[in-house]
Specification:
Strand content: 35-45%
Number of helices: 2
CATH architecture of one domain: Sandwich
Length: 276
Amino acid sequence: MSSEKWRVTHKRLSLWVLAGWAAWSLPGYAAGAQMAPPASPVSLAGSEALATVAGTSVEMSGAPVAFNAQGRLQIFDGARLQVARDAGAQMDLARGGTIRLCGPARVDLARGGGGALLIALDAGGVELRYAAAVPDSLLTPDFRLTTVVPPRQMAAVSANAGLEADGTLCLTNHGSALSVQNLWTGAQRFVIGGDSLEFHPGGATTAVAACPCASPAPAAVTTPASAEGALFPSSPALAVQANGAAGAATPANAPAPRRTHHNALVRFFRWLAGKN
């Protein structure tokens, strides 16, 4: 068997194994369910949805069909979503954040250990916008993309990726660092915020201007506090302290805090306490 035939066969086997695992882990799943809300919402006792989805020309299979109280389709462990060409869909994650799909796209979702999210991208594009406390993974037949989460901190995932027919993965990162591993060679590369790269199955990596499935940036707003008006500012909007608590980051161009003046008695006691 030639190397090219073996590569194609290995891809198909990998996808079959993933689909078989999803089907085995969810007995009684319903296939080919169309996104049409029923007359009344359906609830599944003992099951926790990964997300809800809204969009046009979306088909779901591989998982039970259920709707929440707002009539939105719920996405459970092992679900597969297919989005038609020139269509789109947005998933609102139960843990917070969004994943946008750009058609034509095929995506499988599964729950990993520790609450991690496993996304298998078979075709199309995705846009990831969420905070991650555990490393999530996005799998293609040739690559594994993993979020880099520092100890006791959270990663600000903000990236868009597109998968081409030949297996090339295009990745634009606007947030925390991401790790991309070639499943054939084992080669690994870290993609930091601001990078836009194409990863080819053969091992080559090239810089590109942009990748598919990116949200358009809003119109610039010129104000004294923020003259950039960019969708993804150069300074982070979220800072995580050493104890894991999150708070708003101070802008780089913010003025220095004003020194508070106290009367003589207050200054004397502050001097005694060593706080002068």
